[in-house]
């Protein structure tokens, strides 16, 4: 999700840069048109005074247009930079928030795993102790059975000896 947002923002920023290039090109075309009109005015046959007025008017208009376009471009660049800074800060804040959220989730999961391991460890320990006790009890029964069998064997041997005498 964060990656998609970042890609979207980068694409948007590229479009803004492309628009600025187009604006610059349009400004250059306008300047070229003014220069062309000055050249045309110089090559057309007019009285000197009329020609000077036309040149002066064209020059004044061109300077005013260039100043106006320059200010517009400056403003657009400043706005774009400010917007970029704002977006970068916003992304940075969002990333920090996500980082903290993930950190909390990881911590919670680690605690859950730790509790499960401790529970399993306790269960295993209890089962091992129970198995040990069961083995001891079974061993005692086997020993008792062996003693009884031994006594029965001694008795049987005695009886067989007595019968043989």
From TrEMBL:
InterPro entries: Desiccation-related_membrane, YtxH. Residues 63-116 form a coiled coil. The keyword rRNA-binding does not apply. The keyword Coiled coil applies. Keywords: Coiled coil. Pfam families: YtxH (PF12732). This is Gas vesicle protein. It comes from Clostridium amylolyticum.
């Amino acid at each position: 999700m964060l990656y998609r947002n970042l890609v979207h923002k980068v694409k948007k920023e590229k479009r803004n840069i492309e628009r600025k290039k187009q604006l610059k090109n349009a400004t250059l075309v306008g300047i070229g048109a003014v220069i062309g009109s000055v050249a045309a005015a110089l090559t057309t046959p007019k009285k000197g005074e009329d020609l000077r007025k036309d040149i002066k008017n064209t020059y004044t208009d061109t300077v005013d247009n260039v100043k106006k376009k320059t200010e517009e471009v400056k403003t657009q660049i400043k706005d774009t930079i400010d917007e970029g800074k704002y977006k970068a800060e916003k992304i940075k804040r969002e990333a920090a928030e996500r980082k903290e959220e993930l950190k909390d989730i990881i911590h919670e999961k680690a605690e859950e795993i730790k509790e499960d391991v401790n529970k399993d460890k306790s269960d295993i320990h209890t089962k091992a102790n129970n198995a040990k006790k069961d083995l001891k009890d079974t061993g005692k029964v086997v020993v008792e059975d062996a003693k009884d069998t031994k006594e029965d064997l001694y008795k049987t041997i005695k009886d067989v000896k007595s019968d043989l005498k």
